[in-house]
Amino acid sequence: MKNELVGSIFRDIARILEIKGENRFRVRAYDRAAQVIENLGEDVAHADKEGTLTGIPGIGKDLAAKISEIVATGSLKFYEDLKKTLPPGTLELLTIPSVGPKTAQLLAKDLGVKSVDDLEKAIRSHKLDGIAGIKARTIENIEKGIALVKSGRERLGLAQAESIARDFVRALERLPQVEKVICAGSLRRQKETVRDIDILVIATDAQPVMDAFIALPAAHTTQAWGSTKSSIRTAEGVQVDCRVVDKRSFGAALLYFTGSKGFNVRLRQLAQKTRHKINEYGVFDRNEKLVCGRTEEEIFRFLKMQYVAPELREDTGEIEAALEGSLPRLVEAPDIKGDLHVHSDWSDGSNTIEEMAMAGKKAGYSYIGICDHSQSLKVAHGVPVKDLAKKRRQIDAVNRKLKPFRVLFGTEVDIDADGTLDYPDDILKQFDVVIAAIHTGMKQPARQITRRILKACENPYVHIIAHPTGRLRGVRDAYEIDLDEVFAKAKETNTALEINSYPDRMDLNDINCRRAQEAGVKICINTDSHSADQLGFIRFGLAMARRGWLTPSSLFNNEDALAKLLRKR
Ligand SMILES: [Zn+2]
Ligand SMILES: [Zn+2]
Description:
- This protein is an alpha/beta fold and 569 residues long.
- The chain is 44% helix and 14% strand.
- It folds into 4 domains: 3-154, Orthogonal Bundle (DNA polymerase, domain 1), CATH 1.10.150.110; 156-244, Beta Polymerase, domain 2 (2-Layer Sandwich); 249-324, DNA polymerase, thumb domain (Beta Polymerase, domain 3, 2-Layer Sandwich); 333-568, Metal-dependent hydrolases (TIM Barrel), CATH 3.20.20.140.
- Helix 17 packs parallel to helix 18 and helix 22 crosses helix 23.
């Protein structure tokens, strides 16, 4: 799909116009168009062919013509010309958090810095020291920003890894020799970041599979081309390994290549106790005779332990639990009956309330919470108090139409710099669901920022705290926040904490989810969808929940949660 390309070109245009001090409405129009296109369920090339581009929200004639040009030629003359007006490297520098338009221009123009790597070198050789307009504190922040950008490049986010892997899996499944394809590695364990992708295949004949694998369009460079194992790199530099394994060893191979390493070491030690050996080919007795290995289940049974879900295989207590037979019943997709954090076009979402509700219904939910931003969050078109009654009426109308499906009238209310909420209590109490969140003042010291969240928990109308640590992968680290204090207060005030499933957030992550559950806190998995097709992000939140040992009794995504919300009102 060309959507991503169109989105990234429009975003770059917005940044360039911003640097040039252009009218901010024009800047905003490009940013909004980028967001809409990236979130569009349909391929823009298709809309272009059908002549329906101008029917997309935020796309007028001018932008439609630009999209057509990108679809037809893969580039945009207007953009190429615009880029030439900036010193080279300026846009790349802008990807570093804490580098704004002014600093980027200063670095690129006056210091000739052309890339992130260049900038790192310049800092190391103290070229930035003493330059007017760059304080020591700024240099420190830039260094942190560079580290974030680089860590984001080195490992893929789970969503990105999944989408790359999916293309390979689908292509391999189509081969006539192939019986089964499955991804192993940290992707199967659903880690929040993945380094490379491991694919295992059962096939009647291995060589044609290997030949087809390295010839796939997504296989940019071949690293290794063997008879049962090959490796390639994609154009983005991601390594993908593909192995054809014997049916009789498939379970052993799957276990071995799923890892984690620590988990596998423990299993091998367990087998050694009965003088057996486990490797990627199976379980063998002391005479090297194959005992089992066809399925993972067989191997766990042989070790006299429960089957351990891949998400738990980190050697953090799951082996002991599996030997005792006390593994938790992890949450599963059907346990999730609703998504309480979605946006509509009343704030910065791209679909109407009804479209979001229909998508929720289609996802099999029994309810959805429309939680648009509150009044002060102008960048995200927060809803002013005067419009709330009208919004409520619209929700009531959708509810009449979609009964028994429920659309909840909610808000994602901003927590101000001093912990005050962005709507007064007599407004908050009118909502069915109130989610409180921090979107500004994220660099405050630990004491201050923790206190803001504690104060929000104490508000009787707040049901959930959204994205509790505020981290954005590759962009921003978590706030300096004392989570133990937050957990204690959330439990005391009966406030749920969110696992935000948005791919760059995944916040709470696995570790913090586990801590929260141990502290007795209820956890709500939400998507923070800004368009209907983002409801599918729920699987990433579910991944964090399962990795965090979450059981259904701690989950705030069901009829009980709904009853509590409505009772409170
Ligand atoms: Zn938010
Ligand atoms: Zn949100």
